[in-house]
Structures are given as structure tokens and as C-alpha cells.
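We give this protein:

***
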Amino acid sequence: MIVQTKVTVISDRTKLSHRDAELLEIAQNAGKNAYAPYSQFRVGAAILLKNGHIISGNNQENAVYPCGMCAERVALFYAASQFPETPITKIAITAIGNEKEIRQPVPPCGSCRQALLEYETKFREPIEVIMAGEKGDLYIVRSVAELLPLSFDESFLD
């Protein structure tokens, strides 16, 4: 078996659609407000819902590390609590470094991939993932399932 992930690399951010550029800008602004006193690695996420609403989130750290929350899940859980029957179409994720500029796309961690996959599975619609740093290339993946091959889902619980 061969498992592959198809990633689109965008080198020129001006080539993004207006909506994708807006989503990325909202994620960047959210990242500026992250609470990251320990890692100094501020992450912002912005989720586009099928109804057109955009929900943003940022990472929230805690001295007791497991009590913190990633930006993606902050935005995801807020979206799911406020719009429980509305599919998610896209998420943009970016990071801001305090010490040095982030020049590579930042992917969601494994926990965030699993949480996002839950909603992709729930609505049976792909969630496009746009990953960015402060500068440089962007990565776009058409579905969370592409980022989490051989994943665990509800079919194992039957």
C-alpha cells in the first residue's frame, strides 16, 4: 500500500482568491492575539462555514501544558457550538514567531487533524486546509483526510 498526500504549493500569495486571502488575513490577525507566553509561537486559525460566516481562533497556552488549546480547535469548537448544523468548507492556519519570522507553512497538529476530520466526516464534505507562515509559500490540501491518512473514525466503533 502506498499512501500519498496531494499538496498544492502557492508561491505568490496574490494568486489566492479574494475569499482565501481574506480568510488568511483573519487567521493572521487572530494569531496576533494568541496567548503564548511559554512557546512564543502564536498561531491563528480562521474557519469558513458554508453559510459564509468566518470564525477565528488562536492558541491559548497554560503553565500546565495539557490545559492549553490549539488555534484550530478553539475556532472549530466555537464554530460547532454556534453553528452545529453548518458544514465547514475551509480553514486557514498561520503562525507568528516572536523571535524569528515563520517562513514555512504551519500544519495542524495531530489532535487538530483528528478534530477537524470529525466534522469533515460528520457532514461528508471536504474541509480545505490552507497552511501558511508569515511569509513564503502556502500549502493547500483539499481535504483533512489528505492530512490524516489511515485515520480513526466512527466506523471503528460499530
Observations:
- The two ends are 25 Å apart (CA to CA).
- The helical segments are 18-32, 71-82, 110-123, 144-147.
- The domain at 8-148 is CATH 3.40.140.10 (Cytidine Deaminase; domain 2).
- The longest strand covers residues 88-97.
